[in-house]
Amino acid sequence: MTGTELINGGRLLVDCLLAQGCDRIFTVPGESFLAVLDALHDTPEIETVVCRQEGGATYMACADGSLTGRPGIAFVTRGPGATNGSIGVHVAMQDSQPMIMFIGDVDRGMRDREGFQEVDFQAMFAPLCKWAARIDDPARIPEYVARAYQTAISGRPGPVVLALPEDMLMQQLEALTPRPAVVRPAQAACADAVGTLMAMLGDAAAPVAIIGGAGWNDKARHYFTHFAEKIGIPVACGFRRQDAIANSSEVWAGNLGYGPAQSLIRRIKDADFLLVVGARLGEATTDGYELVTPEHPGQVLVHVHPDPDELGSVYRADLAICAGVDEFAETAFLLCDDVVPFDAGKQAHAEWLEWLEVKPNGAQLDVGQCVTAMRELLPADTIICNGAGNFSSWWHRHWPYEAFPSQLAPTAGAMGYGVPAAVAAARRFPDRTVVALAGDGDFLMNGQELATAVQYGADMIVLVLDNGWYGTIRAHQEREFPGRPSGTRLANPDFAALGKAYGCWSARVERTEEFAPALAEAAAQKGVRLIHMLTDIEFLAATGITVSALRARPR
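Above: the chain sequence. Below: its structure as tokens.
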């Protein structure tokens, strides 16, 4: 669009989003960006999803970025809106997921007076995101929007925050042409470096791959699966990256993080060669940097990551390869013909299959048995969305993630993520089954987004596991101060009745045998369906940890 036509900054911003391929935004409206909302009124190509709290909106944007590989977009207002929305920025950064949060800001002439809801957003968000900036000149909107997209998807993907002064958005200017859609820069893997890797693999006796993370996509999944199966290397994933390859793969060894299989822990400790692709080897994946130490004595470590600042920042790498994970996986597959295959991959997969199986625990409502029922009743490509809490361990252990993407779970360990993420997934993949998992404390941090789900006709199942406690913290208390729980008890509503009040189909389940019929009835319907599951705090996690066992530990 060129010529002397006059438009305002809000219209130009929306035009630039369209040029970048944006088809959906998540927002809680604010008076500080009315010009954007007005432009969206005339832009049916972009669906405006109106949320109920800014944390829910930014969680949805973070999840949408995870699902598409393009930045999820959130609009929030200044002050309270931006501070509420900051949680989604934090999650997007720790999860290496692309998103952009636009903040309606105070007028340019009112800055630095601590005006109404004024915050220095560049100072506030600089530690939380890849780039934080303010657009003061509407003529530079095309430049800033293109740079925001480029920054969010390049290297280690992550969040960008752009502040938009209200008067800048209202300012009239001659219509400008948006910059064309940006794409992730090519990051080919050096063939010589990959050749060196193959020679190093030839000297290894017990290799293990740890995968998933920055920029992982269908191409990375496809080629890495073929590469790993061809050479027989066991493949584990980083914390909450369980859909990195199909769990039915003959070399899949399981997930790292909280409560992995003891057989996988032994395998990692005994490995003489670690191939880390995309993963950052963060605290959760490495069990506090102890399972794999930063110096990893006795182990060769090859680290492949798209961000040069990540390589060598914490872990000493014997070979560092800066490349896109998908491009690396393709090159590795093409250059691995001379590697003598290992037997360990199939052995590790057999160990994982044993770990996957559910053993009854005697609870009135045995969550492990409920996961088994889900595996029998729901499609293999179901998208599982969860927030934070011990409740999630039942699915981390007993649910096989087959499709990609099929796991939306915050590596940042943020509560309240599951329901908003499920809304984003249901809008992005309306033909797939989507399940939100939430503990009782977890659910009430963003359960209001059920209203958003119902308003936009999302098809999703919500499981609320209610044990009347902040269960994860209760478990820590029982470890450190057995028999002295404090500040963790919850008095909860009737979640089934609450679901009905929001317009959901709902059911209440108190016994194991009630769950499968309730799930079957839910799966046969459309819309938002909620199952309130009454669980026992005694059974803390899928790893078999109980309150009684923690209290009985020798001190």
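The chain is about 35% helix and 15% strand.
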